[in-house]
Amino acid sequence: MKxxxxxxxxxxxxxxxxxxxxxxKIEVFNDTNTNIRKLWDDVIFPIxxxxxxxxxxxxxxxxxxxxxxxxxxxxxxxxxxxxxxEGVILNRALFEKNKIDANxxxxxxxxxxxxxxxxxxxxxxxxxxxxEHFDNPTEVIERQLRLCKPGGYFIIVIPNLQxxxxxxxxxxxxxxxxxHNISLMRDNVFFExxxxxxxxxxxxxGYVGNFDFGLLTHDGQFLAKVGITVIxxxxxxxxxxxxxxxxxxxxxxxxxQVVVGRRTGVQL
Length: 268
What we know:
Layout: H1 7-11, H2 19-32, H3 34-47, E1 55-59, H4 65-74, E2 77-82, H5 85-97, E3 105-107, E4 122-128, H6 137-145, E5 148-159, H7 164-172, H8 174-178, H9 189-193, E6 200-208, H10 222-233, H11 235-246, E7 256-263
Parallel strand pairs: 1-2, 1-4, 2-3, 4-5
Antiparallel strand pairs: 5-7, 6-7
C-alpha cells in the first residue's frame, strides 16, 4: 500500500501563531458550517444510539473537533490517533480546553503494528478525510473496522473531489489532485467497497451537503484569488442554488461522500 502524502503535507495544516485563537476558530467552524451540521444532525446522530456507547476513536484526529462533537452529543470518551507532532499538540490543547484527558490523543502512525492492541476496543471508529490519501483504501477501511467492538459503529467521510472541485484544483492547485485518490471518488467506487467487506453492515451510504467553496484551493494565482473572493461573497446564493435547483436534477455539488455502518460478527 502506498501513501499519497508526506508528513510535511500535514504539518502546515496545524500551524498557529495564537493557539487560543486557533482553537476558537476550529470550534466556531464546526458549530456554524452548514454542511458539517447537515452531516452530524441529518446523518450521523440519527443513526447512533443516544446512550450505551462508551468510547470513540478517530484516525487522523487533529485538530479534534469531530471527537468533541461526539463527546458533547452522546457522552462517549474520545480518543485520537495522530502522527504529526503539530497535530498532537493542537488536538491535545482542544481536549484540555473541553476538559477531556489530553493523553487520549495518541502520537502514533495508524500503520504502526502497535495499533493492533487497540483492536476490538471502541464503540465508534471515525475517519474524516483520511482513507482517500492511500492507493489501497480497502486495506485502510478494514484496519479501521478492526478498531470497533463487535456491534460497534464505523463512520467514514471523504471529500467529494468531483465536478467543479476536481477541475478547479486541477487548474489552480494540482497538488490537491496528486495527494488524493481521485478514482475512489468516482462512479460509486467508495460505496461499492463496503458491498464486499465481511463483518460489516452499511446503515447509510451517500452524498451529503451542498456546494462548499472550501474545497476550491489555489497556489496563490491572482485569477484564483479573485475567483475565490467572488465565490465567497456569493456563497449563500450558490449554496441555495445548488440545493434547490441543481441537486433535485442530479447536478448538485455535494461536499462529502459518507458511509456509516456497524461491525458485525466476532472479534477480528
